[in-house]
């Protein structure tokens, strides 16, 4: 993408500053200073749903009672500072240079990567309006960081839907019914769906259902942020 290349070239010729505190970076620091990098330290989570927990667990109580359709969810953190404003800068400020370093950090928390990455699709009308799909960009850079394949055209959004923001879980589920289709079967039985933010999981659940119906056996979710449970009510 031309804009991404121009951003990268511009940043190479200006003083290197931390993307958070804007203080100068040392020779061995990249994108964030050592102090700000601690903001991205992983917290204890349920491996299945990705929600924060007092201690690490493979399945929290909610997942034992009603597990999601996916098998594991890995994220950098909650939808809060510093990740929330960064995602806002990417989506609405076109600060695409943030995606590669965030993808690198996300790759470090994924223990056994899926061999194929898929991205949450945009409807063509929204893609034309926005000009990009941040999930596609994240999947591209994450696939490079993980050394796996990225097949971002297999999933398609066939029905335009109102934005999910501000909707409760049941409203999100109703909003997304019959909104997606699968163009072809993935080349592996273990795949990962890539998105910037997972809130209630309604979107990725719809996509998981399509994949399970064609024989996919194991599905991961890779995202930058997982919205805390109290925001999902």
TrEMBL record:
Domain Phosphoribosyltransferase: 139-229
Pfam families: Pribosyltran
PANTHER family: DNA UTILIZATION PROTEIN YHGH
Family label: Belongs to the ComF/GntX family.
The protein, known as: DNA utilization protein GntX
Provenance organism: Vibrio ruber (strain DSM 16370 / JCM 11486 / BCRC 17186 / CECT 7878 / LMG 23124 / VR1)
Species lineage: Bacteria, Pseudomonadati, Pseudomonadota, Gammaproteobacteria, Vibrionales
